[in-house]
Amino acid sequence: MKVLYAVSEARPFIASGGLADVAGSLPVALRKRLIGCRVVLPLYEGIPSKFRDNMKFITHITVPVAWRRQYCGVFECKVDGVICYFIDNQYYFKREGIYGHYDDAERFAFFSRAVLEIIPYIDFKPDIINCNDWQTALIPVYYSEFYANRPGWEGIKTVFTIHNIQYQGKYGNEITNDVVGIPQEAVALLEYDGCINFMKGAIECANAVTTVSPSYAKEILDPWYSHGLDTILLMREWKLHGILNGISYDMYNPETDSDIAENYTSECAEKKVVNKIALQREMGLPERKDVPLIGIVSRLVSHKGFDLVKAVLEELLCTEDVQFAVLGSGDWEYESFMGDMAARYPEKIAFRCGFIPALAKRIYAGTDIFLMPSKSEPCGLSQMIALRYGSIPIVRETGGLKDSVFDSGLGEGNGFTFANYNAHDMLHCIRRAIGGYADAEGWAILRKRAMECDYSWKRSANEYIRLYKSLLK
Questions:
Q1: What is the pLDDT of residues 155-194, one digit of tens each?
Q2: Residue 253: helix, strand or coil by DSSP?
Q3: Sign of the four-CA dihedral 108, 112, 113, 118
Q4: Cα-flanking dihedrals φ and ψ of residue 378, to 5°?
Q5: How far apart are the first and last CA of the chain?
Q6: In the chain, N or C terminus with fewer CB closer than 10 Å?
Q7: What domains does the chain contain, in order, with CATH numbers?
Q8: Residue 324, Cβ density class (10 Å: 0-12 exposed, 13-18 middle, ≥19 buried)
Q9: CA distance 232 to 243
């Protein structure tokens, strides 16, 4: 079986979020299970020279973009055993940043068409093309309209993965002829709610649609979560599958991680306290072994639950013997709030604005509890990383959080959960966790159970393989 994984970003080359983590890990996991998987992404200006210097030029072609043709260079390199192809066009991709340009619709229409056009030149005809989010959503549309019956392209199945349904690729109808370039009778595939919607086209045309957790697959059928696409998804529910993401157990491994103060395993997790003291020292908090230390690594935005945090954090700091280590950036409102709390309660909360990957790992390793009260969370990786490092998650039951963290109230779970999106429900849950921490023997059992959860890509990759095989039958 051959899989071409089409994506707009991928680690270790370039990343803006969790999509890049998935694209950097899932193909590797598929390769380990004897699936021929290769990755294709744009050749952005921001890709470091250490990767560019090892790329091999394959060929150059021209790619149709509506009524015109554009240059397309094809480069190749190999990382972690996976061959990756890079689509080069300096007009579209020699820019600062990945997204947010005025012509993103045209940039990714070009990329989507190029993914299909390069197939005869890369000596790799895929059985499956797995597309990801709106940036590659035109691939199933273009395939069904232009390539399905062409020699050399026939028999390919397309899978479309929704990582976050909020971002759909919505544009005015005026781009139909000048950018998208599909026959007039096919425009209805993309039209929705008075505009052109790339994601809607992929849902219509792909052979299967996946999301990044089973609960999220159910949630996006509800108008509360679907950002307007629930009607289309309900009509195509038969092709919708929820597969929980995983994390790289090589990248996130407390036994070998060189970014943390002391390595440890689930069998000797008491060494975790060395990381706790080191983190308290680094963040400027009092060095105390006995106090529960709660970590937050997140974008500081409301849908990550920071309106709840803002509502009750001061009450918690005033009434509980607790510390917080917070790392993140986002909305000015929440950055200012966290900075103010750290200034007013310096012995209880430390805040670093921004994202520092090495510090994030030290927070996972050094904290006792990890707070993630999201309003919505398609999958979430932070809670899985926290479990891996023995930092017990507190989460709201939504999306992938609901599928990976289970309440330990009956002595069987791996964290603490609350259901209602309510600040005092979250506060009660935090206090339950603080109470659990006071029972040292019970906490050690919970921590060991959390660290032994398996959220590696092994399980998830097997589910993708089963889906791919079902399509090829």
A1: 999 999 999 999 999 999 999 999 999 999 999 999 999 9
A2: coil
A3: positive
A4: -50, -50
A5: 12
A6: C
A7: 2-246+458-472 (3.40.50.2000), 266-455 (3.40.50.2000)
A8: buried
A9: 20
Return phi, psi of residue 289, to 5°: -75, -30
User: Dihedrals φ, ψ of 268, to 5°?
Assistant: -135, 45
Whether residue 393 has a cis bond before it, omega within 30° of 0: no
CA separation for the pair 448, 469 (Å, rounded): 36
Query: Tokens 């440890």 label which residue?
Result: 264
Separation of alpha carbons 98 and 425, rounded Å: 38
Taking a C-beta distance cutoff of 8 angstroms, is the pair 390, 254 a contact?
Answer: yes
> pLDDT, tens digit, for every residue of 423-448?
999 999 999 999 999 999 999 999 99
Query: What tokens were used for 346?
Result: 């310096």
Query: Residue range 309-331: average pLDDT?
Result: 97
Write the CA distances from 87 to 122, 324, 418, integer angstroms.
Answer: 12, 44, 45
pLDDT at 238: 96
Query: In terms of pTM, does the model score above 0.90?
Result: yes
CA–CA separation, 26 and 37 (whole Å): 9
Q: Coil, helix or strand for 392?
A: strand
Q: Which two three-digit tokens encode residue 236?
A: 């195509």
* Residues 236-258: tens digit of each pLDDT: 999 999 999 999 898 899 999 99
Angstrom distance (rounded) from CA 388 to CA 350: 23
Neighbours of 462 (CB within 10 A): 14
**Element at 236 (helix H, strand E):** none
